[in-house]
Amino acid sequence: MDRIAGIINLDHEQDLLEELTYFRCGAAVPFAGRYRMIDFTLSNMTNSRIESIAVFTRSKYRSLMDHLEQGKAWDLDRKRGGLFILPPDWNDPTDISRGDLQHFHNNIDYVHRSYGDYMLITGSQHICNIDYQDVLAAHKQSDADVTLIYKRVEMVQPEHQLASKLSIDEHNRVTDIHNNQKSNYVYMDMYLVKKSYLLELIEEGIAHGYAHLFNEAIKAKVNTTHVHAYEYTGVHALVNSVESYFRNSRSLLNPQEHDLLFKQESPVYTKVMNEAPSKYLQSSNVHNTLVANGCVIAGDVEDSILFRGVHVGKGAVIKNSVILQNCVIEPNAVLENVIMDKDCTISEGRMLIGATEKPFVLAKRKVM
């Protein structure tokens, strides 16, 4: 049986979520009430029987390391394989590599020692629920050198403009990788490649002075190698801006969208906090809201997402907002179209109102 080893490459991901990434990398941003962005990638891998996963980090990874710990939540705290968090290490005076190829070069031992026959390289910004064993089957059937995973979106959103797009022929072969903003074939920053071929690509990319494994070493070979396209047809969200974070978070208030992402047969795992159930006081009025554990609600909450440990005072009103962990909204405060990071406090009677297209964002530990 062919095995897959995983690499979550955060080296080239930009932190574009403004206040939400002041103190953390994008992969550690909370999402969907009790999860982090990276939870979806890790869960997809472990549900696909990938037992060895490396995380390439570059900056602001303290919060990420605190969340991941030893990988116990994803059953990755094991003697063989498991979770490897690999910050940058540039102590080799003979190293001529740069960009994310430098990260691959400095952690080449992980690739060599991995028991996987194939390597899956992903980012963290594409939220989905995918079985990578299906991707492996398609890769082997097509006899491809590299298989890229894409999503055909019905409507191109602003966040898709920053993503790479694919041109595909009738045999599902990739003929071009580009940034045509009108194209709806969105590359999901995920590809599968045989380990031996990945080692060749890394060596060749460094020899040519490339800085980005995919954009230069792989993209340049589209016309000379067999690059296969695998279409993912499930629920999908690309989160690379505050606006896309806000819209895709609130889309989970649709029960159908929520159930498609959080499937019983392929659950999403996260760090367990062992908090008490949420408490709804008699004065509370909660409608169409996703509420995590440990909340105490005495006010009105509508069309919103409350993370763990949020306290809503009597007479407070929250509409169309995302309130992160341990925030306190004091009595008679009003919030509408707001994203509030962890440990913030809104004083009694304070009013914060943003726009649906441009929510008001409050950075971590702010008091207003």
From TrEMBL:
Domain Glucose-1-phosphate adenylyltransferase/Bifunctional protein GlmU-like C-terminal hexapeptide residue range list: 282-354
Gene Ontology molecular function: any one: glucose-1-phosphate adenylyltransferase activity
Keywords tagged on the record: Glycogen biosynthesis
Pfam annotation, one family: NTP_transferase
GO terms classed as biological process: glycogen biosynthetic process
Origin: domain of life: Bacteria
Membership in a protein family: Belongs to the bacterial/plant glucose-1-phosphate adenylyltransferase family.
PANTHER family: GLUCOSE-1-PHOSPHATE ADENYLYLTRANSFERASE-RELATED, GLYCOGEN BIOSYNTHESIS PROTEIN GLGD
Protein name: Glycogen biosynthesis protein GlgD
Organism: Pontibacillus litoralis JSM 072002
